[in-house]
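Following up on my earlier thread - several people asked me to post the actual chain instead of describing it. Fair enough. Here it is, all 232 residues.
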Amino acid sequence: MRVSEIFHSVQGEGLFLGVPTVFVRTSGCNLRCRWCDTPYASWNPEGEEMTPEEIVRRVTAYDCPHVVLTGGEPMVASGIRELAALLKAAGLHITIETAATVLPDGIACDLASLSPKLADSTPSQEQAGAWSERHEVTRCRPEVIRRWMQDYESQLKFVFSGHDQLSEIEELLNEVGAVPSFSRDRVLLMPEGTDAQSLREKSPMIAELCIEHGFRFAPRLHIDLFGNTKGT
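Reply from S.P.:
Thanks for posting it. Predicted structure:
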């Protein structure tokens, strides 16, 4: 599979915020979010071809118990299920960062970090050409989201830019339906932005909305610490 980068850092988002983690970023994506902060792994996929065994050797060399499979969209990477099985056999805790447009089909996973894409993510035709319509049709699949939530411990993360998205999130939660192991504090709202100043400006408003609606405010620690750079 093509791998954009493998690096050791701290988890910047979600339930494992701040936990030392090895990240495996696969290259390639079936979406084209207008605000994508990893275009080198999505819009213009780059990287080297590696076998699952080679990736596991790189990951385990860090002697770190947590690994994140991310992208791009890792669930469209060839060999992703074999890689996850090998990482689980090595005793690692696996988080999969996915837009939840592809069914899990039993992939080894300890935390499903689901990032359904809201309408605000769709790029213009001027920006993305034919990908604009393709993204809009593909970006949100409630039945696939529900399967992930039923089969794995999960969190729902949303890049949040404005109040009008609250009704869209609530509508999606209603479409997905109740999942016994999932509660509203597993719905995370993250400020949109690729620099610390933008995140700081948007965070107070989002935090207030989380308090009001029972969601979880999710800072983006890696941008605060390192900026929007590779290998962080």
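The chain has a mean pLDDT of 92. That should answer part of your original question.
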